[in-house]
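User: Teach me something about this protein's shape.
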Amino acid sequence: MAGSAYGSGKAQDTDFRRKWDKAEYAARAKEREARERLLDINAERKRQGLPPIHRKKEEEDEPKQALKAREEKIVLDANVGKIQVVQSARQPGFYCKACDTVCKDSANYLDHINGRKHQMNMGVSMKIERASVDSVKDRLAMLKRKKEAPEKTEYG
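Assistant: First, the predicted structure itself:
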């Protein structure tokens, strides 16, 4: 039989269904059980009048970057007068792809860009590197040189 009216024998009509990863769900169940155990322990500690034990977050494989000054300029008026369709956002405003959020105005958008949630989604730690004495002296010397010799601008 060359072919059938129902396909080649393989059930292709069910290929769209989600395939279950047993290892992933076993890991999720293990995490859930650990959280429940911690809740039980904290409930017992609360009855005894002791402070709760907080769960330690494991660090990710790749370390996060330290917080640093933004080098690129944020252009807020680039899309003024333009219509832009955004699939996930149902309301107008400034859309952040990294966080999948919409901010209603530019001030809220800047607050969001500088905020903890956005920085964590971008892979940046909120901890600041401690500056050494030598780096501070170098920076001050560079700023002094820049102040003494301002750049000349040519007008055409």
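Now, about its shape. Residues 60-135 form one domain. The longest strand covers residues 124-128. If you'd like, I can walk through any region in more detail.
User: That's plenty for now, thanks!
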